[in-house]
C-alpha cells in the first residue's frame, strides 16, 4: 500500500472522505470549495482505475460505489481518491484519464452525487451495517476503522443509502442536503475536466 497523507482505512471510502473533509475544512483560512463525491449507478457496478488494495495494487476495481473528494478554486479542480495510486491531490484531467478512463467503453455508465463538504459533515452517518457479513450482527466483511461510527449532527445513525441512490428522480431534500446527481460528462463540465481521457 502507498503512503497516505490522510486518515485512511481500506474499504470504508465514505468515512475516509468524511475525515478528509473534516481535516481540510478545519485548516485555518481555508477558502476553496470542497465536495464529497459518490460514484455509483443503478446497477451498483462502477469501474475505477489505478486502485491500490492489498489484493489489487494499481489495477481496476469494479465497485458497487466509490467516494472521492473534489476541491475547486478559481483556476482549477483537483481530486482526492484515497484508494488510488495517483497523486493526492490529483489534477482532474489526470484523474479523468488514469482514474476513470474511457467512459464510453464501459458497460455501466457512472453517475456522480456531489455534496458540499459542509453538508456532508452535517448530514452523513453510517452505522456500518452494510459491511456486516450476511446474517451476522458482529462479523464484518472487512475490518472496520478504529474510530467510532459517524453520527449526523441531527442524531441520525445511517444516512449512507440516501447518498447511494442514483436512480432518475432520486429523492433529495428541498435544501439539497444530499447533494446533486451528475452524469460523468456533466460532472467533468462542472469541474473543468473532460470525460474519457482528460483531453479536449
From TrEMBL:
UniProt entry keywords in alphabetical sequence: Hydrolase
EC primary class: hydrolase
Catalytic activity: N-terminal L-glutaminyl-[protein] + H2O = N-terminal L-glutamyl-[protein] + NH4(+)
EC number of the protein: 3.5.1.122
Entries under InterPro entries matching the protein: N_Gln_amidohydro_ab_roll_sf (IPR037132), NTAQ1 (IPR039733), Prot_N_Gln_amidohydro_ab_roll (IPR023128)
Domain named Protein N-terminal glutamine amidohydrolase alpha beta roll: residues: 8-189
Subunit annotation: Monomer.
Family assignment from sequence similarity: Belongs to the NTAQ1 family.
Function statement: Mediates the side-chain deamidation of N-terminal glutamine residues to glutamate, an important step in N-end rule pathway of protein degradation. Conversion of the resulting N-terminal glutamine to glutamate renders the protein susceptible to arginylation, polyubiquitination and degradation as specified by the N-end rule. Does not act on substrates with internal or C-terminal glutamine and does not act on non-glutamine residues in any position.
Protein's name in the database: Protein N-terminal glutamine amidohydrolase
Native species: Coccomyxa viridis
Gene label: g10112
Amino acid at each position: 500500500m502507498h503512503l497516505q497523507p490522510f486518515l485512511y482505512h481500506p474499504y470504508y471510502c465514505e468515512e475516509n472522505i468524511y475525515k478528509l473533509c473534516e481535516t481540510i475544512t478545519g485548516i485555518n483560512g481555508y477558502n476553496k470549495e470542497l465536495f464529497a463525491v459518490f460514484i455509483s449507478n443503478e446497477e451498483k457496478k462502477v469501474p475505477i482505475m489505478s486502485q491500490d488494495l492489498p489484493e489489487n495494487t494499481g489495477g481496476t476495481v469494479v465497485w458497487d460505489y466509490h467516494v472521492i473528494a473534489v476541491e475547486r478554486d478559481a483556476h482549477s479542480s483537483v481530486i482526492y481518491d484515497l484508494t488510488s495510486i495517483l497523486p493526492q491531490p490529483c489534477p482532474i484531467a489526470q484523474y479523468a484519464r488514469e482514474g476513470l478512463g474511457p467512459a464510453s467503453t464501459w458497460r455501466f455508465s457512472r453517475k456522480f452525487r456531489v455534496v458540499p463538504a459542509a453538508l456532508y459533515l452535517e448530514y452523513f452517518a453510517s452505522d456500518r451495517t452494510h459491511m456486516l457479513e450476511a446474517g451476522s450482527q458482529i462479523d464484518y466483511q472487512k475490518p472496520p476503522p478504529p474510530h467510532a461510527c459517524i453520527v449526523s449532527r441531527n442524531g441520525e445513525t445511517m444516512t449512507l443509502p440516501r447518498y447511494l441512490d442514483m436512480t432518475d428522480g432520486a429523492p433529495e431534500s428541498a435544501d439539497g442536503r444530499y447533494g446533486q446527481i451528475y452524469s460523468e460528462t456533466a460532472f467533468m463540465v462542472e469541474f473543468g475536466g473532460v470525460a474519457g481521457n482528460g483531453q479536449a
